[in-house]
Records
---
Amino acid sequence: MLGNFSYCNPTKLYFGDGSLSYLDTELPKYGKNVVLIYGGGSIKKNGIYDDVMKILERNGKNVAEISGVMPNPTLPKLYEGVETVRRHQADLLLAVGGGSVCDYAKAVAVSVNCKEDPWEKYYLRFEEPDCEVVPVGCVLTMVGTGSEMNAGAVITNPDTKQKIGKVFADERVMPRFSILNPKYTLTLPHYQMVSGIYDIFNHICEQYFSGEDDNTSDYISEGLMRSLLHSSRIANRDPQDYEARSNIMWAATWALNTLVAKGKTTDWMVHMLGQAVGAYSNATHGMTLAAVSLPYYRHIMPYGLQKFKRFAVNVFDVDPAGKSDEQVAQEGLDAMEAWMRELGLVMNISELGATEDMLEGLADSTLVMAGGYKALSRQEIIDIFKESL
Ligand code: NZQ
Ligand code: ZN
């Protein structure tokens, strides 16, 4: 491991069936005014809303609500939420939902006391908050993003067709606590479950496929990927398998709580390509990643051949005996493709609404990252999108 880094993750986690009861432990730490933030209503159907409200009432909280946070939360919704939180003078934002709700709560948290326009400050100039940040707590209901234990907050500007993920360096943006009950994820539709599973897998890949030094982070990543492959196959066959869903939930948190990025330059190019697709199509995040992944990885494989070979052997158990490095690496990606097809992931962007005439616009919306094995040119980006159609 050759990199220099600091590591601090201040989010307190409560994990397991029954973990919601720890809301009683957390709520007394904050003032009276709570804004409850949630999505389009799944928490009302599965009863989580009622359970959370009971605990808020029991703790004497004065509750306002922001509902209707959409998947891929938008900038107009951010502005609306900031107004609600200002009016309510919130002491705590309680996000109950998936990555969209949790991300959104963080974006609101850094914007409430911000004197400038948050889109320009955080998402275009990538600055850090220099104001008070409202504390965020999270009750997670959808697994994949890792938002429950990181400082990421992705916002989409529908006017400019930009979907931008700001990862704050400021630890105050991380949830103060997150409650992770795997049972809550059992009501997710299969499409969302597998989309989340691929999101987790790709988060690990984005960090793994960078650097050439011998790095402990890569060994942790391989373990997480193996665990995820194992549990995902069980969950795909039987989505009600608590043990598998529980392992998937825990893997998701560790895939993107900054641990496996330590000492790594990290790639994130699949996310940049996928986010461009998301900005154009509003498609489900994990599916946008699945649809661009294989053309991207097959394209960069020659530039990071040894790592792709290691991935094939250590993650997908490809037998390297008597084969060239290229052959082993290719077999690894073939095994990954077979697993993705087994889960029923979306494998091309046309299924998500992308068309040939969007290619230039998609390339305009793609940020180029330089931490992986190859910084892509504009032409390479267009070629990868074309391959993904
Ligand atoms: O809105 P409701 O009605 O709650 O329905 C949601 C939503 O339609 C539904 N859902 C959630 N929990 C459920 C449930 N349905 C039934 N039962 C449950 N228990 O699932 C749908 C998707 O939810 P969403 O929160 O959008 O999914 P996800 O967790 O994948 O979050 C996606 C957002 O996170 C961003 C993505 O870009 C996207 O905007 N990301 C955040 C990251 C971070 N903070 O680090 C990193 C990721 O790479 C990602 O970019
Ligand atoms: Zn992701």
Note: The pocket of zinc ion (ligand 2) is lined by residues 145, 199, 203, 271, 285 (CB under 6 Å).
---
Amino acid sequence: MLVSRENHPADSVIKVNNTTVGGGNLTIIAGPCSVESEEQILNIARAVKENGATMLRGGAFKPRTSPYSFQGLGKEALNYLSIAKKETGLPVITEITDVRELELFDDIDVIQIGARNMQNFALLKEVGKSSKPVLLKRGYSSTYEEFLYSAEYIMAEGNENIILCERGIRTFEHYTRNMVDIACVPVIKKMSHLPILVDASHGTGKHELVEPLSLAAVAAGADGVMVEVHDNPDEALSDGSQSQTVARYAAMTEKLRKLHEMMKEI
Ligand code: PEP
Ligand code: MN
């Protein structure tokens, strides 16, 4: 397997514009679940940039469970992400849900494949033909082996710029939306050379659990975190209950940075 540690013993380091994922760097991808307006994404982009984010997230095409839920602003949101990128200098990441969207992604720096599409093989092959970095989320019922085979689909087409992301799996527990699988981090590190992040927002569904689980991820050796941040979580059009306020996000980031430094010494 191209993605296996056996095939490539050294850690892969992925360059995304002016930032680097893997290789001992702490990646912090922050931003709202969905881009809701130009003003909203600009406000959040400025706030997360000021507080240590290395990349800006924001959904344009949303894979919602119900067809009646907010589906994202689509193309318009991509335009707002471009504006936020221009102003802050942060690279931007957004999810692709259909191969036909790829032609709209010229100014997007990282293409996200969401949990629901982890085994959408047509989509994996298509982003594999692109040279843009891809962030591949683990499906919520997928084994480590299936996760890595999906990354293999991308790499087999020639795209080596892959970042993995554990985002919680389904278990019998209903208190949390999903269960962050911290073991995924050291297991994937052993099996593969690709960097791996942890998304504790989707991984827990509860904003107050994002900080402890993100810290646990970094302690377990994750290359960074993805986190949903909103300037007004109560009014968010999607995933408000798992979104951190800017203040909570800022406090968490400081702890993550300290922990990441400490981890180098122990
Ligand atoms: C997201 O990051 O916006 C998202 C929908 O995540 P997931 O695919 O992990 O559910
Ligand atoms: Mn979300």
Note: The longest strand covers residues 27-31.
